[in-house]
Amino acid sequence: MSLDEDLEEAAGGPATGLPVHPGLRRARAWLSRAVEPGTIDLWRYVEDVGPVEAVRRLRSGRAPERVRSLVGARAEQDATLADLARAERCGARLVIPEDDEWPALPLHALTVAVSAEPGNRRDQSDRTKAPVPPMGLWVLGAQRLDELVDRSVAIVGSRASTAYGEHVAAELGHQLGERGWTVVSGGAFGIDAAAHRGALAAGAPTLAVLACGVDRPYPAAHGALFHRIAETGLLVSEWPPGCAPLRHRFLVRNRLIAALTRGTVVVEAAARSGAQATAQRARRLGRGVLVVPGPITSAMSVGCHELLRDEQAGATLVASADHIIEAVGGIGTDLADLPERPSGPRDGLSDLAARVLDACPVRSGVTPERLAAIAGCDVLEVLRVLPALELADLVEWTGTGWRLHPPPRRPGGPGAAA
């Protein structure tokens, strides 16, 4: 059946026994190839008349000129059956807003954000930055998309990462995976790959948002990594199978990484980087912006530190998965434990006991009267705290006075038996 015939049948009413009419899915597939994602005017037109009617009008030339100009020569082309067949051959599927699997709640933030865009195209955000919901998502993997992103965190960073950054990203990915959180990233070299591998090492699913077809690994060196991701998690793209990873598409897909997750963690970012752009998208969508600090001498952490210094960014410093989960998790249920602090015998001493202890000499013992004079208290008060200090092995009686208890000798140290 031709596309136009399928669309006409879909326009006539819902298909019997099918949750989604095949013509509606073909309409979404056609739109995913005909117009580059992030186009505000086309998305508004589809929302206004519906995807089936929008495609029918675009192909027949009945759509408004400003919308038809966005499609251009692609209006007469139809690769929907080829795209759907190619997806089926590689095990992928097209998930559309009409499916139960569609992550409607996370992506609703894009709908809210795009409603604030002006009507005049010249005043709208650049397409690579516009918060436009996707027409559909090509998905490769057995997991349900909506379930996988329900508890998810994005970890992004520099491609030219340092050993420090990759170690941190892998640790965070592993810890989040162990805690039942999905790690979302872009599958690129550096921080992205380290985060994915950390989650996989924990036996947890991870999700990669690609800037090309899900059947076309990019970078090619990550073919094995993408295969592992698809086995336990998902590969997701707005572009049909076979589409090339063009430069502008990486900027467009950043909004999806930010929208699908509860927060974005920036591990390493140069002064100008895609990771910073993703953090800016997250902030616009009301998502948490979390930043891992790095060495102040590292050029790969300049962007991280700038995010932390920018009061309007509202970035939160994080150093562990516990910090991340506390920031994006449930209120009162995902609190991070306080860091363990080393304790010593001096902890918990009263002000008086601490002053008497500080007054004790290291070598020769002194009288309680001398301690009282140095500590600035009464002799009776000194006599009252000295027994407790002695039981704690903090002071000792020399026979002539009180002094600090000497520290224990280390094995093999000076004075140890030969």
Automatic annotation (TrEMBL):
Q: Which GO terms describe its biological process?
A: DNA-mediated transformation
Cited Pfam families: DNA_processg_A
Smf/DprA SLOG domain location, by residue? Answer: 129-328
Recorded superkingdom: Bacteria
InterPro entries, per database record: DprA, DrpA_SLOG
* Protein family membership: Belongs to the DprA/Smf family.
This chain belongs to the protein called DNA processing protein
